[in-house]
Amino acid sequence: MHGILGGTFDPPHIGHLAVAMAALEQLDLDVVRFIPAGDPWQKRDELVSDAGHRLAMTRLAASEDPRFIVDDIEMRRAGASYMVDTVEALGGRCILILGADAARNLVTWHRAEELIDLVEIAVVPRPGSSVEDVRAILGDSVVGLSMPTIDLSGTQIRAHVANGHSPRFLVPDAVCDYIGTNELYR
What are the tens digits of pLDDT across the range 65-90? Predict the structure, then answer.
């Protein structure tokens, strides 16, 4: 069985890697497939880095473990990136790994009912959102992953770098180097 960890990955950070590792260990997954959004419909009002940079950084981050795979399926598809289309293209049946904050809003996603029927849902706690909050919305079939809550986001890292600070120790070293070399978020 494979897990899917989708997102903007702008940039991919240690929280993403910790979540992927928790899913591998606790759900007995063969791989976790990192899927950077090509055209993230939920971030239409935000400035998002070029897809090529996000893909390159995600590949660097995923190189930390051979069971982490990066799939550019959403970047190769024209138009908005909808997870239901991605899951269908990958043949369905998988485990969708979400932060509790994103999972609470899953019912607002494009073709949400179809997506929920296609996948199992694994949820990690996020600041202000628990697995129990998600179960109250989606039901008891939601699997909770046990791990410390990591209060870190791409938005925070981008602002940190924009203020002249290093992202070292917030992102993998290779991603930190990539951000510096390409002068991202400045």
Answer: 999 999 999 999 988 889 999 999 99
Q: Is 178 helix (H, G, I), strand (E, B) or coil?
A: helix
Q: Which pTM does this prediction carry? A: 0.94
Q: Looking at the domain assignment, is residue 168 inside a domain? A: no
Q: Are strands 31-36 and 94-99 parallel, antiparallel or unpaired?
A: unpaired
Number of domains forming the structure of the chain: 1
CATH of the domain at 117: 3.40.50.620
61 occurs within a structural domain: yes
Task: Name the strands in the sheet holding 2-7, side by side, starting at the edge strand that comes first in the sequence.
Answer: 68-70, 31-36, 2-7, 94-99, 119-124, 143-144
CB neighbours of residue 180 within 10 Å: 14
Residues in contact with 13: Cβ distance below 8 Å, sequence separation at least 6, in sequence order? 61, 152, 153, 154, 157, 167, 170, 171, 175
Tell me if 176 is assigned to some domain. Answer: no
Sign of the Cα pseudo-torsion (129, 130, 136, 140, in order)? positive
Q: Which domain holds residue 40?
A: 2-149
Q: For 168, which DSSP code?
A: B
Domain for residue 173, yes or no? no
Token pair belonging to 123: 């949820």
- Give the whole-angstrom CA distance, residue 61 versus residue 65: 9
